[in-house]
Amino acid sequence: MGSPLSHKHALAIVHKTYAAVGWHLYEERATDEEQALREQVSAAFRVLDVAVHGPCPAGFISLCEVCYLRYVPTEAPFVSLKGDYTSRNLCTECIERLKAEGTIDHMELWETGEALP
Length: 117
What we know:
By secondary structure, the chain is of the alpha+beta class. It folds into 2 domains: 1-55, no CATH class; 57-117, no CATH class. Helices cover 40% and strands 18% of the residues. Strands 4-3-5-6 form a 4-stranded antiparallel sheet, with helices on one face. Strands 1-2 form a two-stranded antiparallel ribbon. The N and C termini lie far apart (43 Å).
């Protein structure tokens, strides 16, 4: 068995799993129970995020939508990854890593929609 997980890494795994398989809760055909679960999951993540990472500091908006280990600075651009149809909030470390890997399709400033290089 591998080394024990930290609380932050364990929560990141749960976030990533939900991001990968929780999409059906947002479909038009989602049942009333699934729609209620969708709201409960979002609230549960907010509670756990604060319990594990501490309150989101001023100047930050949410956990990174790639690693779920760090809060995203307010000034961070929206990032679209190649092959993905949504824009994401990413921490500075993930933006730099994904740039180096060449997996970023485009980035834009959230305030103006201006494309970034």
